[in-house]
Specification:
four-stranded antiparallel sheet, 1 helix
């Protein structure tokens, strides 16, 4: 009897531990459930091209999971990927799940972006621009944007969209109901919001030249808040968005550095090159040319396992 009781208790502990782990994975977005199958992050798929057709391989095993059969495909996000059928098989166009099943058929859509926060931007085929906008996970057009040519993924409830030519007034960040809450008519691109901030990019043109072959340098890069304010009062030559409280910037006169969400030099030092953190470490090139790593305190370390 004691042995049976012990086994029951152990089984309950295992079940509860499994449920807790799955709950943690669910919150961190590291797995997807498709057709009753639990897919972990390592089971995610990556598009490959073979004989002009696109399929998917497993990132973990490097084996083909979905045979090449599509004219175009995006990466998976939130367990779904947009695919476009080859000519004559447009009925294959839409979003597939990790098993390769077409779960959101969209034969009148020319392009679909990745899902984020349950929404994805799609562009209707020629003559069906009324289908352009954001769809939900059922394929329903919930934010129609027929005069928009680009829609980025939602992050922190906001997404950058760019209006078509002559409708630059529609460019900026929209909220989850499609309202333009941060109008940015002169901006060509923008990063997703992260840690309450976003990087926007404006292209400067040399007004002395009208030659179309003259290449324009993008910039400046500016950090804005949810009100559209330049929060740091600075313009940068390059800048990344914030990730876990750090962003990498390069001033017009100066070296690269990590800044915190107050716009301050996070580690009190500069680098010739700097890369985003991967886990607890970031690769950097010191001013003397030495390539090394720093930890999240800014200390130079020898990365274990490298």
């Amino acid at each position: 009897m004691k042995k049976i009781t012990f086994l029951v208790i152990m089984m309950m502990i295992i079940v509860l531990t499994t449920v807790a782990c799955m709950s943690e994975m669910r919150e961190s977005g590291n797995f997807f459930m498709t057709n009753g199958t639990l897919y972990a992050e390592l089971d995610m798929l990556h598009p490959i091209e073979e004989n002009g057709l696109i399929g998917f391989i497993s990132i973990a095993t490097r084996e083909i999971v979905i045979e090449p059969q599509f004219a175009w495909a995006s990466s998976f996000s939130e367990g779904l990927a947009f695919v476009r059928g080859v000519e004559g098989r447009e009925y294959q166009t839409g979003y597939i799940d990790l098993a390769g099943k077409l779960v959101i058929p969209l034969p009148m859509i020319n392009h679909g972006s990745f899902f984020s926060e349950g929404l994805a931007f799609v562009i209707g085929t020629e003559g069906r621009k009324d289908l352009t906008g954001y769809i939900d996970l059922t394929g329903t057009l919930v934010i129609p944007l027929p005069k928009v040519e680009r829609g980025d993924g939602f992050s922190e409830g906001l997404a950058f969209v760019r209006g078509i030519e002559d409708r630059e007034d529609l460019t900026g960040y929209i909220n989850l109901t499609g309202d333009l809450i941060i109008p940015l008519p002169t901006i060509i691109a923008a990063h997703p919001f992260s840690d309450g901030f976003a990087v926007i990019i404006e292209r400067e043109w040399d007004r002395d030249y009208e030659d179309p072959h003259v290449i324009s340098i993008p910039g400046p890069f500016v950090f804005i808040d949810r009100l559209g304010n330049n929060v740091f009062g600075q313009e940068f030559q390059t800048a990344t968005g914030f990730v876990d409280g750090f962003a990498i910037v390069s001033p017009y006169q100066g070296n690269m550095k990590f800044i915190n969400t107050r716009g301050q030099n996070a580690f009190g030092r500069e680098f010739r090159l700097a890369f985003e953190f991967e886990g607890d470490y970031a690769e950097v090139v010191l001013l003397n040319g030495t390539r090394t790593h720093i930890n999240r305190s800014g200390r130079i370390v020898s990365r274990v396992g490298r």
